[in-house]
Amino acid sequence: MKFVFVLTTILLALLLDVAAGDRQYKALNFGDSMTDYIMYQPDMSPLQNAFSVCSWVRSLNTNDFPTWMSYAVSGSTNEIFVSADGYYNLIFSSHIADLRSHFSGLARNWYHYCMTWNYSSRTQRVYLNGRQIHSRTTPSGRRLTTGGYLVIGNDQNGHTPGPSGFYSAFIFGGELYKLNLFSKELSSSEVLEMSRDKCTETELTYGDVRSIKWEEILQRSRNGNVREIDSGCEDVIIRRQMEVKLNETLEELRNSKQLLNETRAELSQEKEEKDLCRTKLATSEENLNTTMIKVEEALEELERKKEDLIRITTSLNQTQTELDQVRKLLEKANNTPPDCPLNSTITSYWDLLYSEDYFGDVISSEKLEVLYKSVEKLEYFVGLRVTEGMIQFMKHFHDGTDKCPNSTE
What we know:
Blueprint: H1 2-20, E1 26-30, E2 38-40, E3 50-58, E4 67-73, E5 76-83, E6 89-91, H2 100-103, E7 110-118, E8 123-128, E9 131-137, E10 149-152, E11 175-182, H3 188-195, E12 210-212, H4 214-217, E13 226-230, H5 234-334, H6 365-372, H7 388-399
Antiparallel strand pairs: 1-11, 1-13, 2-10, 3-7, 3-11, 4-5, 4-10, 5-6, 7-8, 8-9, 11-12
Helix pairs in contact: 1-5, 5-7
């Protein structure tokens, strides 16, 4: 729907543009009387050294010399003189070139005519439907004279404004379209291009070189029965302009569509990248939450281990204190000489340590089992060697006496 709306808008705009300047697509139809003509005095100075007279012509009159253009100046009544039947193709009032054989069969049909001249080459050329049919050399030093009158639709045969010099034999009585005078000698290729199509707009591309323009002629005052008619080109030109505009619009739309597709692809890619970033952020957030939970659990575990470590440290400190006390007592016992002989009568269970199974040997786990049931904390002495001092210490520490079993004291 948007595409149709755009095309409709373009077509309406184009139609309005053409309607605003549609007069240039009109042809002129000239009546059959001597009073049916256009006459004015244009500025011919740009054409002095070179010119080209071109027009689309349709001859409808059976007069002897139907003349569609005449330019006359004082002293030269036929400075430019062109008839529709091909008899007059005259410039500078000299040399009548009869080219009627080339025009036979063209009556009542549109044809393209061009006559060119250049001062430097002194050459006059005549083209019919894009093909050169005549050329001649003009007098040396001759330029186009300015200040004259231009008559369209008859031969003036004089330099006096008005039909006083008109003759019925020269009444045009036909149709003209796109009569233009150029201030240059058109090349054969330029003339050919201009003649290809009555509805072409090639003439518009020449700018100021087109000194006398058809659209200006249409605005000139007319005498008698000279009226605008449909050239048949307006619809053709509108269609062509619409085709060109539509093709340009289609190309713009294709380019816009391509840009939209590229933008859509870029947006889609950006969306994918953003979605991926969101996924990564969500995953990172989830991992962070998991890590935080693990950190909190680890901190709680560390707190528990810290408490356990404090308890173990306290217990170890207490045990260390007891061990220190035991070591001091053992050192004291080892440094005290024995008061009792080894063969003293056994009066205490510690005297068992004097036996061959213990005395002088290292207390092992097996030997410890024998004494374990009656003696407390014997595990502290695993690995100690049994000596006299150790036995006396044990007897003193556990029996409350440092005397030998046989002592009377």
